[in-house]
Amino acid sequence: MWTTLVQIMPYAIVFTIPLLITALGALFSERSGIVNIGLEGLMVVGAFAGAFVIFKFQALWPNNAAALWMGLLVAMIAGILFSLLHAFASINLSANQIISGTAINMIAGAITVFLARNMTGSGNIRITSGFSRYDVPLLSDIPVIGKLLFTNTYDTTWLILLIVAASTFVLYKTPFGLRLRACGEHPHAAEAAGINVRKMRYMGVMISGAFSGLGGAIIIVTFAGEFTGSVSGLGFLALASLIFGQWKPMGILAATLFFGFASTVANVSQVIPSLAVIPPVILKVFPYVVTLLALIVFSKSSRAPQAAGEPFDSGKR
Amino acid sequence: MRSGIISLIAVLFGLLAGAVLMAVTGHSPLAGYTYLFEGGLKNPERIGNTLATATPLIFTGLSVAFAFRTGLFNIGAAGQMLFGGFLASAAGLSFDLPKPLLLLVMVIAGFVGGALWAVIPGILKARYNVHEVVSTIMMNWIAYWTVYYAVPAYFKGEFLETESKLLPDAATLKIPFLTDLFGGSYINLGLFLAVIAVIVFAFIINRTTLGYELKAVGLNRQAAEYAGIAVNRSIVLSMIIAGGLAGLGGVAEYAGNAANIQIGILPSQGFDGIAVALLGANTPVGVLLSALFFGLLYSGRGFMNAMTEIPPEIANSIIAIIIYFAAASILIERLVRWLVRRRAAGSESGPSAERKVE
Amino acid sequence: MDYAVEMLGIRKEFPGIVANDDITLCLKRGEVHALLGENGAGKSTLMGILFGMYQADRGLVKVNGKEVRIGNPNVATKLGIGMVHQHFKLVSTFTVTENIILGSETRKGFVLDVKTASRRIEELSQRYGLNVDPYAKIEDISVGMQQRVEILKMLYRDAEVLILDEPTAVLTPQEILDLGVIMRNLIQEGKSIILITHKLKEIKANAHRCTVIRRGRTIGTVDVAATSELAMAEMMVGRQVTFKVDKKPAVPGAVVLEVDSLSVKNNKKCLALSDFSLQVRAGEIVGIAGVDGNGQSELVEAIAGLRKPESGTVRLKGEEITAMSVRGRIQRGIGHIPEDRQKRGLVLDYSIAENMVLEVYHREPHSRRGILNKLAIKQYAERIIASFDVRSGQGAASIVRSLSGGNQQKAIIGREIELNPDLLIAVQPTRGLDVGSIEYIHKRLIEQRDKGKAVLLISLELDEILNLSDRIAVVNQGERVGIVEASETDENEIGMLMAGVKAEGGEGA
């Protein structure tokens, strides 16, 4: 059991990270009052932009991690630019945010493959190499947790955990966070206090775009290594994590770890004897069924931002 | 009327954006569109294929539209379609019955499969007020993995791991008469089923007390409740019908257009159904027209891809952009108003008649 | 003269209506100035202009004698103008301090400095006698305290002119008195107050001067001490008004509604109504008086079948209906004019015809075997439209959203009365309507009583309760604190009861 856990854990963490950063981005968006179900599409855009840039730069400077970091940066920018479509429709045009988010998913899925096919024919973009894993010196020697948390790690993992900590701080300890949360709870109160609700909501959606793009690109530079035109539902799983985590950074961390772990278990179950007895279908649907159950449990006490999903009309009093 | 104009303009924008995409990737939009439309309309076979391609879209479009009329966002048509199609395929592969009877059983199985997949979000919504968008998304993935493992386990195909056995002749909606009429097209009885569904949809929504109740719940849930309408029952019922329609879409796709069921993919028609419903303003005729148009784009893209170098995903891109513009209909309304005002100002050279405070 | 604010010749047009037409209002420094007018007279628009939410089309605004342009609420705040909106603008999951500093946060570097702010709030609270805990969460404090948080918000931003929009609507009688004291404290410290209201008594009690507007025009500014309530009322309405409604003495018959020790929980799972008993007889109007949120909604919902009671029974004409469906109750003779016509009474995007059959669409002749009979529905609706004078653009086919508030309400009342119910529940039936519609609706309710129907009236307007009811039950925190004959009581007694001072011997429970 313990060896199984030690085997699985590094993979689970790697799988958790893109979910975590994407769900965290969605947290900013929903806390500002904009529901973003376009996460899947934004991740696809990030994955595409990241893979494309890395592909190009690796041809120029092989064996240089700078290409990978450049890819992540461009993925974030691409995510931001793409999220502006959702922001514009939701904030300026009072569009239905679910439909707009669905459109984002569809546009992203179609256009990235369209562009990729123009380049490679098959529509897949393979990068030469991703980040390499390493054991964190000293920390990996700590008994118990050293093996679980500090072996076989990626740089991106530590980067994302840093972003999570910083985001928690920003959300709860700074004027920006206070204002952002006010816009999601009671935009008219925020407006009456002189806050530009639209601007704050743009910020929320753009952060979501940046983080989703980053999440999509991290998939490429860690476990996938190739852009294939989809992120296989990870964006939707990130959305589930946001709800499961009850719109709180630490809740999201726990939820994504849970989903990351559950998905990894499902993926590797066939090669681990103690898990192979469980039908794989059970393991695969497990995260989704748990989310449904969580929705029922939280239905009475949900802490969703109260104004999330509602267009803000400053004339309404 | 107004929504019709908005839809047309959204389509126009979508096609324009498609042209821009073709141009920036170094292709000729003119050639692209010529071959795209030729590919969908050139001869009876292609017309038949266009109609057949549109058929599942009609069903998923109706599914999304029906739920929407009750104020529900059925984003789970993909999963409902997949599971409905799976049950129908399972019936088609398991029972040895005369064709008419077997098809009837399959249609029922498809409806039930879709309804089953939609009734869970329906109950969660009615009973626990769980938002149906999230629950239907979860149901999509549960359907995906269920079918992913069930097909190889029970109906494994002869050649490929990713699809089921081929359906026997008695279990396909294709009939020689139609195939011959349309020069070898894969058009099938699904289209007639879809047209019947459009008519039934229109009748229920406009003429029956059921439709009246569902619309009342959709427009104002509280007022409906105060008036003694069983709101929770309406929500569950609406999801059942919506899911059943999507399930029929699965029958039309897997037992009509295709000859077996594929795994490892959520049918794109599920999400396209949202676009179809939106563009069709959630009306039955609107859905029919939108689905035909999208069917044309999808069925023509292969020909276009063969004749030019344009990747077939251009069709998906155009549809996705259309749904964005349809969602952002206020933009179009503002644009129209602005154009009208400019024209008025041009001809009268006076101040515009009406000023809207925004 | 030393004016804090002068609004001169203000005109504001919205598409289709002139909301303000040449209105003038001058606020002296250190006075409480009432702005009196009916719903829709243009009070909110005028104050919206002063607070920078709208721009006047014409006219002049001066603050401290200097002409200013108030482009948005931030400018108003900088000029020292603050507003307490009728619907509070507070984030319920935030603390008092977080709400107050929102938008003008104290900070140490990048970080919020809550401590310094809380200290300042505590100081202000003591200085003006507001008694607010800076660390409490909004969702945990009373409505009265929430209002004081709103006032603190303005004081925190150094407001000199305070606009209070209908501040007493949500308060208990005791809290209203407290608010009076707070207003006096504010004036002593040199602040000036504009009090928006349509309640004459409050003007009498608190204001120095009063500007009356009607249909977007200034009628005049009067010295409150020298003007009678009746005179101000006539200025507001534009004709002679009587505060009394004409009605014959009631002739109560058999018991129609019998509520017995009913306990009901609210949405927050707290007991909102406890051990409540009440009888309403044929031929009488029983009014429920109480401050908003004291269990009235839960009582109505339990009687109408929209909310399950924890314990107790509801009987209609002797038959127990405690667990019956809404539809079952409607069929057995309950009509219900709900509190919020747009949210609960009507499907705004349905036509009048469709709305008129909302409760009876499933019965013949409106439908048969599940198929609607549109002609029969239209005829039914036209009958209601004719007998209740519902005015609309295209008759029965008009979409209800396009109707005025008064006509929407008439349509609902017509629909409910057309059901010929034995018990008619009317909740806030005249809220937000003009005087003409109010009088019409009152007459119709009395007419129902005189036809031998039981009427249960719930209203937050004490005058309405006193004028219409034959008997009055008073609720406070979900308990029936008294039941009195309308002819033998007055406002003071009811006010005492509403504040929770029990009459009757029944202290048991």
Automatic annotation (TrEMBL), chain A:
<keyword id="KW-0812">Transmembrane</keyword>
<dbReference type="InterPro" id="IPR001851">
    <property type="entry name" value="ABC_transp_permease"/>
</dbReference>
<feature type="transmembrane region" description="Helical">
    <location>
        <begin position="156"/>
        <end position="172"/>
    </location>
</feature>
<feature type="transmembrane region" description="Helical">
    <location>
        <begin position="6"/>
        <end position="29"/>
    </location>
</feature>
<feature type="transmembrane region" description="Helical">
    <location>
        <begin position="98"/>
        <end position="116"/>
    </location>
</feature>
<dbReference type="Pfam" id="PF02653">
    <property type="entry name" value="BPD_transp_2"/>
</dbReference>
<feature type="transmembrane region" description="Helical">
    <location>
        <begin position="252"/>
        <end position="272"/>
    </location>
</feature>
<keyword id="KW-0472">Membrane</keyword>
<feature type="transmembrane region" description="Helical">
    <location>
        <begin position="67"/>
        <end position="91"/>
    </location>
</feature>
<protein>
    <submittedName>
        <fullName>ABC transporter permease</fullName>
    </submittedName>
</protein>
<feature type="transmembrane region" description="Helical">
    <location>
        <begin position="278"/>
        <end position="298"/>
    </location>
</feature>
<keyword id="KW-1133">Transmembrane helix</keyword>
<feature type="transmembrane region" description="Helical">
    <location>
        <begin position="41"/>
        <end position="61"/>
    </location>
</feature>
<feature type="transmembrane region" description="Helical">
    <location>
        <begin position="227"/>
        <end position="245"/>
    </location>
</feature>
<keyword id="KW-1003">Cell membrane</keyword>
Automatic annotation (TrEMBL), chain B:
<dbReference type="InterPro" id="IPR001851">
    <property type="entry name" value="ABC_transp_permease"/>
</dbReference>
<feature type="transmembrane region" description="Helical">
    <location>
        <begin position="75"/>
        <end position="95"/>
    </location>
</feature>
<dbReference type="Pfam" id="PF02653">
    <property type="entry name" value="BPD_transp_2"/>
</dbReference>
<feature type="transmembrane region" description="Helical">
    <location>
        <begin position="274"/>
        <end position="294"/>
    </location>
</feature>
<feature type="transmembrane region" description="Helical">
    <location>
        <begin position="314"/>
        <end position="332"/>
    </location>
</feature>
<feature type="transmembrane region" description="Helical">
    <location>
        <begin position="136"/>
        <end position="155"/>
    </location>
</feature>
<keyword id="KW-1003">Cell membrane</keyword>
<keyword id="KW-0812">Transmembrane</keyword>
<keyword id="KW-0472">Membrane</keyword>
<feature type="transmembrane region" description="Helical">
    <location>
        <begin position="47"/>
        <end position="68"/>
    </location>
</feature>
<protein>
    <submittedName>
        <fullName>ABC transporter permease</fullName>
    </submittedName>
</protein>
<keyword id="KW-1133">Transmembrane helix</keyword>
<feature type="transmembrane region" description="Helical">
    <location>
        <begin position="186"/>
        <end position="205"/>
    </location>
</feature>
<feature type="transmembrane region" description="Helical">
    <location>
        <begin position="101"/>
        <end position="124"/>
    </location>
</feature>
From TrEMBL, chain C:
<protein>
    <submittedName>
        <fullName>ABC transporter ATP-binding protein</fullName>
    </submittedName>
</protein>
<dbReference type="Pfam" id="PF00005">
    <property type="entry name" value="ABC_tran"/>
</dbReference>
<keyword id="KW-0547">Nucleotide-binding</keyword>
<dbReference type="GO" id="GO:0005524">
    <property type="term" value="F:ATP binding"/>
</dbReference>
<dbReference type="InterPro" id="IPR050107">
    <property type="entry name" value="ABC_carbohydrate_import_ATPase"/>
</dbReference>
<feature type="domain" description="ABC transporter">
    <location>
        <begin position="257"/>
        <end position="502"/>
    </location>
</feature>
<dbReference type="InterPro" id="IPR003439">
    <property type="entry name" value="ABC_transporter-like_ATP-bd"/>
</dbReference>
<dbReference type="InterPro" id="IPR027417">
    <property type="entry name" value="P-loop_NTPase"/>
</dbReference>
<dbReference type="InterPro" id="IPR003593">
    <property type="entry name" value="AAA+_ATPase"/>
</dbReference>
<dbReference type="InterPro" id="IPR017871">
    <property type="entry name" value="ABC_transporter-like_CS"/>
</dbReference>
<feature type="domain" description="ABC transporter">
    <location>
        <begin position="5"/>
        <end position="240"/>
    </location>
</feature>
<keyword id="KW-0067">ATP-binding</keyword>
